[in-house]
Amino acid sequence: MIKRIVLSISVFMFLGIAFTVYVNVRVEKVTQHRLYTDVSLIPRNKVALLLGTNPLNRLGRPNTYFSTRIKTAAELYRAGKADYILASGDNHSKGYDEPTAMRDSLIANGVPSDRIVLDFAGFRTLDSVVRAREIFGCDSLTIISQTDHNSRALYLAESNGIDAIAISAPIKAGRLVRIRLALREWLARDKMMLDIWFGKKPHFLGERIEIPDV
């Protein structure tokens, strides 16, 4: 009985590791040619999807992942590479509001308020990407986040019929933070692949919201 249990656990672990390796290799292969780090080289899109994160880190200090995304989005707008910034994030409670925090920070970085569109139902990356098409009518997008997260968002976009590219914000964090977030991203990609296979939908959809031409 003990041997069977050990064997079962070993097989399960092997399959889990093999699945994670497969998913990550596939995501990198499919998306690497759509990733940019230089705003001057990226093609123009009408809308840039800014993916949300907490403005504060776990210690209650300013989150560099948030601030570098904001600066990259503002730079993209100033360079004329996006007419609108669609700030999509989590607003699951009255006291937690990523989209409004992004809007305020974008305005502070020189993006006009009338060029910022808020999506308060971007609870997960899947929600943000799918809602960008289903609610805001975006068949093409420029995605803004850090590189690993961008790759996952790009894969989701392609799986949902969106022609997307991504600009990667710099990472200004210590080695331990980077390792922790990289491990979390690997597992998030596993879940993403399962969501795609099983047809997972966003928590909320709703009526269409038109983003006008400039």
- Unreliable parts: none
Question: How is the biggest beta sheet arranged?
Answer: 6 strands, parallel
The strand count comes to: 6
Q: Strand order across the biggest sheet? A: 1-6-5-2-3-4
Number of helical elements: 6
For this structure, the quaternary state is single chain
| End-to-end C-alpha gap | 69 Å
Q: What average pLDDT do the residues reach?
A: 93
Beta-strand share of residues: 5-15%
Shape: globular
Helix content: 40-55%
Provide the succession of SSEs.
HEEHEHEHEHEH
Structural write-up:
The longest helix has 30 residues, at 2-31. This protein is globular. Helix 1 (2-31) packs across helix 5 and helix 5 (147-159) packs parallel to helix 6 (175-197). The chain has a 6-stranded parallel beta sheet with strand order 1-6-5-2-3-4, sandwiched between helices. Strand 2 (45-51), helix 2 and strand 3 (82-88) form a beta-alpha-beta unit. The model has no long low-confidence stretch (mean pLDDT 93). It is an alpha/beta fold and 214 residues long. The N and C termini lie far apart (69 Å). The protein is built from 6 helices and 6 strands.
Task: Please sum up the structure shown.
The protein has 214 residues and is of the alpha/beta class. The protein has 6 helices and 6 strands; from the N terminus they run αββαβαβαβαβα.
Give structural attributes.
single chain, 6 helices, 214 residues, alpha/beta
Write the topology of this structure.
Elements: H1 2-31, E1 35-36, E2 45-51, H2 64-78, E3 82-88, H3 98-108, E4 116-119, H4 125-134, E5 140-145, H5 147-159, E6 163-168, H6 175-197
Parallel strand pairs: 1-6, 2-3, 2-5, 3-4, 5-6
Helix pairs in contact: 1-5, 1-6, 4-5, 5-6
